Amino acid sequence: MKDCVFCKIVSGEFPCYKIYEDDYTLAFLDIAGDCYGHTLVVPKKHCQNILDCDGETLARVTATVQKVAQHFVKCGFEGVNVLNANGACAEQSVFHLHVHVIPRAPQDGIEAWPFKDKHDFDMQSVCDRLTMCK
């Protein structure tokens, strides 16, 4: 896609700090610089998000996410956060599928789980709305 910044990174038109690359995916540092080692994993084939991505491409992205996460642990981190946003209302900012992999260490100060208040949802009605098991 000609106006997609991630497609331009994949094609080499825009530079990046590569962490990993194979025939189908690319992992590179997020230039936002908000967290040490914050990495984005993208498919080389353009798709907007997981909602329109074919299963094979999504599986390859997931495999690369796992490789990157395992590598971060080998580099001395104790864990990772894996984050993905799909659609504008979910705060997706670049409409090319991407998965954030953020290396984590104890007391690193990153708040990756913002939900602090418990809500009193009617769990049965939530399940009724969302179930695929009918």
Automatic annotation (TrEMBL):
Classification via PROSITE patterns: HIT_1, HIT_2
Catalytic site positions: 98
Gene3D superfamilies: HIT-like
Motif (Histidine triad motif): 96-100
Annotated Pfam families: HIT
All copies of domain HIT, residue ranges: 5-111
GO molecular-function term, one example from the UniProt record: catalytic activity
InterPro entries with a match to the protein in the record: HINT (IPR039384), Histidine_triad_CS (IPR019808), Histidine_triad_HIT (IPR001310), HIT-like (IPR011146), HIT-like_sf (IPR036265)
SUPFAM superfamilies referenced in this protein's UniProt entry, alphabetically: HIT-like
GO BP term, pick one: nucleotide metabolic process
PANTHER family for this protein: ADENOSINE 5'-MONOPHOSPHORAMIDASE HNT1, HIT FAMILY PROTEIN 1
Record-given protein name: HIT family protein
Species assigned in the record: Candidatus Fimimonas merdipullorum
